[in-house]
Fold:
Amino acid sequence: MDNVLLEMKNIIKEFPGVKALDNVNFKVRKNTIHAIVGENGAGKSTLMNVLSGVYPSGSYSGEIVFENQVCNFKNIKDSENKGIVIIHQEHALIPTLSIMENMFLGNERATRGIIDWEKTRVDCLEYMGKVGLSEEPDILVKEIGVGKQQLVEIAKALAKDVKLLILDEPTASLNDQDSEKMLDLILNLKERQGMTCIIISHKLNEIEKVADEITVIRDGKTI
Structure:
């Protein structure tokens, strides 16, 4: 059990007229890539929204155990403070801000309420290096392509001292070349930095390439 980073037990999530998650159970081991697969509407994203606090404790039944502690997340900030970071399919970047500003938005490098821009820039370059971005930190996000925006999202997650990175359909908006780079990066983060990842995907060739373990969800149930 020491190797288990996350366990979700008997998760039930209902919306009016529909049971989106029906007694879902699964475990994620440390330093692995765990794929969650299933058809559209199977409950994959709902499960991750429960885990990340988008659906707060009390709006579902069941238990989230992370690092051997039962967690009751009220919001995304709570889960991020524990080291659980989700990157949604739709990017959460602000196009008119720079890479550097986006990376530390809400996680500012500040002393007594004053942003330390020199430290921000140094830290930004460090995390950009980890994901293979060579752009200037001052460039606006709208001036880089979708593939590189995805890398900014991952660098932003790394800057939050992430322990469990959740990627929701990370290659959905990428071309084949950028998709390959993204999958190689995910493998690299696992092998070189000991990252633990959950990846939601319906592309079986991608899952075959990166996943150590797979959970299949159908009609809100783990099968």
